[in-house]
Design brief:
heterodimer; A: 150 residues; mainly beta; OB fold (Dihydrolipoamide Acetyltransferase, E2P); five-stranded mixed sheet; 3 helices; globular; B: 788 residues; alpha+beta; Four Helix Bundle (Hemerythrin (Met), subunit A); Heat Shock Protein 90; 5 domains; six-stranded mixed sheet; 42% helix; 25% strand
């Protein structure tokens, strides 16, 4: 596992799998991503933290689904739109993230990296390692470890 | 001979395997004569065979392996170098060992195999030293064999001494090596194929004998007996694990197919699916069997534990075992080993008294600790029972208060069974003195945690002066468990059958009557016993989608107590494959895992223990609090506000009985009432229960020709009486009752309850009418809960 956990946000070059959430572009390290699925039947888990959207059946494996909108303090996904499931693998355990839509895999350069913009509010700030300045928009790098640690 | 047979058989199986490995090793050794690792491995193998053959009194086998070992130890220590001649004699030795083993296997003895030639050959090969390398004759230097490379004329006696020393050193080395290989074996969890490396190094460590002790093919009808070594193979546990996983998936797929086909009309398809169903079940059973081992595997170490501990504590303890052959999954067996050992140690240390105290109590000076194992409805029940002093609930409670684990007030609300279960609280130990055996307050909680971690349950029962029983209920296997699937607020949940006792379904009309409220908490009268009800929707914070008033109750058992879980619907019983859930969900403490159901949806598995703890404790506490408050008020204002049981006694008269004096409601067949003198009694749960007919007691005359009598049982201090009424009507709140004083015999007064005038029974008088000695036996107040 080559995952930065408690180290301060640092610039890394590499590939990020990007996705959209409430209008913003986010990215996770490609090596964490196991697969991307269309919306799945969720089994809700009563009394679970609000960010736990439920459990999905991933070919016989039971995987927890985290609602990233909730995790990042964004409003709930509008009714009628289906979430996309990104399955990430951390420490051998599969966890899935619910996002709005999946985008490209982007090569990022450490030179474009900046610490999280000050405008980010508390909850989201914890989960964002920083931002890469791409042409025309910002790519927010998600700290997967923290994001799934709901 | 029978006992020995097993040992010999295991020895043979192990040795044969080791010998095959030896052949390979020896040949490989010629290629790399300096490999200490290989030499050590060969040495260990021969050493093991030597040790066991000495123990089993196979003298010739011992002799051969002994000289072989001599040579090997010197080769290993670099005193001798390996030449083709030496390899040859070593191979010759292996052949001789093999023929000896074959002889033992077929005839039970060493037969006529001659070993002297081989012994001589090996000795000669040892002395036939071209280089001046021979052992030093100084015993002191022998402790460091490497330093003892001085050329001397080899005298047989001297060689012997050196070799003995070398063997000792080697034996000390062995545990280290074993530890290493053990580590290897354990780290293989990640499904890599690392075990192939370990294979060559550790023929004796790690891998278990698959189905050890099982297949003893008795020679039947003159059929040729299959060679022992050929009838069993060792299988890596990882392989079995992955097989089990696959079978689990197969079972899931089977469930899916069976569910689909159930809707189909294609008879061929239906037949094929039935066959699939059958085969999958058998396969599952078969694979499960390969992982099964008799519980004796962990029990066999306990007599020694008990003996040593008994001596240490100055107690004589006899260990009895029942159901040694009971089999359970190897993983589970490993998991219960430590908890079981702990319970046994506890039993000897705390449970059984010293011989003097036992004699003083009129018991046999020798204590008896009994281990029992049996299969019971798809689970294994293991009991550790001692015939010792039992647990003094009073002292236990006092201790718990002293430790600050509960408050005195909480304690006073607890039933005796609850008080006993407190021994499982962290930081609890009743041993007066901390011994090095137990009493440090770690233990029982760890035992409980460990048992629950494998989906089992533990409960304790104790009778002061008679002994204590710890009962473990363990699932047969971890991966696949039979479960009940239920629906609640539109979602399905699985309840492991291990906790399920029965199902009760009530239609709306019945439910309205049968589900009662006691102090705000719903209860159901299950065959006369009050069953606290917990609504799953309440626990989960959901809203039930069942509005037709039907009530479905799953009667569950947890920690020796029963409760009813109200669910919306019961779906099915099916075998489910338990999948772990992530950390966030485990932290909720209500789910023990999740599973994929036949239709592919995920269902959560309810953790019944946690559920009971969460829902019941608070609920009973609340209920008991309100009951206690009611009782307190009633004492203050003479029952100003009390729950009352209303009963009809004939002639339209109604009697109210304070609910807290009611232990159980029963129905008794009229013909089972017997007479003792001028009293009526009935046999009830192995005791004689005096009866008072309330109608006669109060001068009413009800219909006495009823076949079934409605009985209210009142118990206190181990004594019970039965109060017969005509009909049990209702439970009401005696709150707004207005009473007038009537000075009638057996009544306290009357009140308006449920819009009708109701007489208030003088319970004490009624009880005395049935059993004049009822209160004489014990003068302690009836609220004492510390005795059963």
């Amino acid at each position: 596992m080559t995952t930065p956990t408690d180290t301060p946000p640092r610039a890394t070059s590499g590939q990020l799998a990007t996705f959209r959430l409430d209008g913003d572009l986010y990215g996770v390290e490609v090596e964490h991503v196991q697969e991307v699925l269309r919306s799945q039947g969720l089994t809700r888990v009563p009394l679970a933290p609000p960010a736990v959207a439920g459990l999905i059946n991933l070919r016989g494996q039971v995987v927890t689904a985290i609602e990233l909108r909730e995790r990042l303090g964004r409003p709930p996904r509008p009714a009628g739109t289906d979430a996309v499931v990104i399955v990430v693998r951390l420490h051998g355990e599969a966890v899935s993230l619910l996002v709005d839509s999946i985008a490209d895999v982007v090569d990022v350069d450490a030179g474009d990296f900046e610490t999280p913009p000050d405008t980010l509010d508390g909850q989201a700030r914890e989960l964002i390692r920083g931002a890469y300045k791409l042409d025309g928009q910002l790519l927010l790098a998600l700290d997967v470890q923290k994001a799934v640690g709901a | 001979m029978d006992g020995l047979d097993d040992i010999v058989e295991e020895f043979l199986v192990e040795s044969h395997e080791n010998l095959d490995q030896l052949d390979t090793d020896l040949v490989a050794l010629e290629q790399e004569p300096d490999s200490r690792e290989r030499l050590s491995s060969i040495f260990r193998t021969i050493h093991t065979i030597k040790g066991t053959s000495g123990f089993l009194a196979f003298n010739r086998l011992e002799e051969v392996t002994h000289v072989g070992e001599n040579m090997l130890s010197r080769l290993r220590d670099g005193v001798l170098s390996l030449t083709p001649e030496r390899t040859s004699v070593l191979l010759l030795m292996v052949d001789t060992v093999r023929s000896l083993l074959t002889s033992i296997e077929t005839t039970g003895g060493e037969g006529s195999v001659d070993v002297s030639a081989v012994v001589a050959a090996i000795s000669a090969a040892m002395e036939d030293t071209p280089a001046p390398v021979a052992p030093a004759p100084v015993p002191a230097a022998a402790a460091e064999p490497a330093a003892a490379a001085e050329p001397t004329a080899p005298a047989a006696a001297v060689v012997e001494a050196v070799v003995e020393a070398a063997v000792e050193v080697a034996v000390e080395d062995v545990p280290d090596l074993y530890d290493e290989t053990h580590d290897d074996v354990h780290h293989e969890d990640a499904h890599d194929d690392a075990h192939e490396d370990a294979h060559g190094e550790a023929p004796a460590a790690g891998a278990p004998v698959a189905g050890a002790g099982a297949p003893r093919s008795d020679a039947q009808g003159g059929a040729q007996r299959r060679a022992v070594a050929d009838s069993t193979i060792r299988v890596d546990v990882d392989l079995l694990d992955s097989l089990m996983l696959l079978v689990g998936e197969l079972v899931l797929t089977r469930n899916q197919i069976v569910q689909y086909v159930g809707r189909s009309t294609d008879t061929d398809l239906v037949r094929a699916s039935q066959r699939l169903n059958l085969i999958a079940s058998e396969l599952q059973e078969g694979v499960m069997k390969t992982r099964m081992q008799p519980i004796d595997h962990i029990w066999s170490k306990l007599p020694r534990v008990v003996r040593d501990l008994g001596i240490q504590c100055g107690k004589t303890v006899r260990l009895e075992m029942e159901g040694k052959d009971t089999e359970l999954d190897k993983t589970l067996l490993e998991a219960v080993k430590d908890p079981l050992t702990h319970l046994v140690r506890n039993g000897v240390d705390h449970g059984i008294e010293s011989p003097e105290r036992r004699r003083a109590a009129g018991k046999n000076a020798e204590g008896v600790l009994t281990l029992r194992a049996k299969h019971e409805s798809g689970q294994v029940v293991v009991e550790v029972a001692d015939d010792g002093a039992g647990i003094d609930a009073g002292r236990l409670g006092a201790k718990a208060v002293e430790r600050g684990l509960v408050t005195a007030e909480q304690l006073s609300r607890m039933g005796p069974q609850d008080v006993l279960q407190m021994i499982f609280l962290p930081g609890f130990s009743t041993a007066a003195a901390v011994t090095n055996v137990s009493g440090r307050g770690v233990g029982m909680d760890v035992v409980k945690t460990n048992i629950e971690a494998i989906g089992g349950t533990i409960e304790v029962e104790s009778e002061p002066g008679r002994g204590t029983v710890c009962r473990l209920r363990i699932p047969l296997t971890l991966a696949i468990v039979p479960a009940l699937t239920v629906e609640c607020a539109g979602d399905r949940y699985a309840i492991p059958q291990i906790s399920l006792q029965e199902l009760v379904s009530l239609d709306a009309e019945k439910a309205a009557n049968a589900v009662e409220e006691v102090g705000g908490a719903p209860v159901y009268r299950l065959r006369g016993e009050l069953l606290p009800l917990v609504r799953l929707t309440d626990v989960l914070g959901l809203t039930s989608d069942r509005h037709d008033g039907h009530v479905v109750i799953a009667v569950l058992r947890s920690e020796g107590r029963r409760f009813g879980l109200v669910v919306d619907r019961v779906i099915n019983t099916e075998e489910i494959v338990v999948k772990a859930v992530g950390g966030q969900l485990k932290a909720i403490g209500l789910y023990s895992g999740a599973t994929v159901l036949g239709d592919g949806t995920v269902a959560l598995i309810l953790d019944v223990q946690a559920l009971a703890r969460r829902a019941l404790r608070t609920e009973t506490a609340e209920r008991q609090e309100s009951r206690e408050a009611a009782a307190a008020r009633s004492v203050a204002a003479e029952g100003e506000r009390q729950r009352m049981l209303l009963a009809a006694i004939g002639e339209g008269r109604r009697v109210a009985i304070p609910l807290d004096t009611v232990t159980r409601l029963e129905q008794v067949r009229a013909e089972s009432v017997e007479r003792v003198g001028n009293r009526e009694v009935v046999q009830y749960r192995g005791a004689i229960l005096p009866i008072v007919r309330l109608d006669r007691h109060l001068g009413a005359y009800g219909t006495s020709d009823r076949e079934v009598l409605e009985v209210i049982v009142y118990s206190d201090h181990g004594r019970s009486v039965a109060i017969v009424v005509e009909e049990i009507l209702d439970i009401v709140d005696g709150g707004a009752a207005v009473r007038s004083d009537i000075d009638d015999l057996g009544l306290l007064g009357s009140a308006v309850l449920g819009d009708r005038v109701t007489e208030l029974l003088d319970v004490r008088a009624a009880i005395l009418a049935a059993d004049p000695a009822f209160y004489a036996a014990d003068h302690t107040p009836a609220s004492s809960l510390l005795e059963v």
